[in-house]
Amino acid sequence: MIVYKKRESPEELQILDDLVHRSQADTKTLQHYRSLKSGYEGEMQFDRQIANLDTEAYQLNDLLLKFNETHFQIDSLLITQEKIYVYEIKNYQGEFLYQADQFYKLPKRDVINPIHQLGRMIPLLTQLLRAHGFNLPIDAKIVFIHPEFTLFDAPMNTSMILPTQLPHHLRMLNDLPSRLKSIHKRIADKLLELHIHDSPFKRVPRYSYEELQKGVRCGGCGKISLSIIKKYYVCSNCSHKGLTEEAILDSINELLILFPDKKITTSLVGDWCSLSNTSVRGVLEKNFEKQGSNKGRYFIKREKS
Length: 305
Known about the structure:
Blueprint: E1 2-5, H1 11-22, H2 27-50, E2 58-67, E3 70-79, E4 84-90, E5 94-99, E6 102-105, E7 109-111, H3 114-131, E8 138-144, E9 149-152, E10 160-161, H4 166-174, H5 182-194, E11 226-229, E12 232-235, E13 241-243, H6 244-258, H7 266-273, H8 277-287, E14 288-291, E15 298-301
Parallel strand pairs: 1-2, 4-8, 5-9, 8-10
Antiparallel strand pairs: 2-3, 3-4, 5-6, 6-7, 11-12, 12-13, 14-15
Helix pairs in contact: 1-2, 7-8
């Protein structure tokens, strides 16, 4: 299997993760953050399970597409010889009930029916592909990935794959006679070309540099509670140990995500990390490219060779 589009942590999740650990997030923001994080963890778990497939296929993750002025997202898509498999990943945990075409989290809280979500998305994908001359049939599935998910009164022969059914589905995929041709690569290339990078669905609260807590975050628990001893640090919250340079680089990446318009200078990074300019200058010079004169010097990301 060829991973044609890798899964990356969504920018919205990265921003919320930074804000949750550097400010007093309200209940609504915390709930949204936890929901996004759970969803991403479920998608990563699915990726780990599907990674060992031997069948020939192109895998594209986290596609955001648009057709007829309507945006739609695809968690994971596999292009095989005869079909395109589309997967909506749900990381639901606990006991659920399927009743009268409705989803409930017990004791009986309404949940958006993922089958309805799939029903709205597949016609859009079908029409988009046909508009570009592709007619490969689509097989869409909802994967409930969490091992502690239970669905009472689950209907048979639906598009749902329960946790105990996933190994069988993966074996079926592995046994597929699949040989990729140029048409399959053209489909993958077209979907990559049509992917929208800047999601219109982002929900991020307003924030400013001044209101966020400064300091270097732990690579384990994410909290700002490090004791830095030269090359290494120890977290007083979770006892995680790590390299100071890596922690500083993570902090710089936070700056780049949270404040893309700010110039990365030694003094800015020193203030953001609550470290001396001397402590961060070496990390910047080693990992970034210098721009400008001594007085107005700033740093940009070094292009990968």
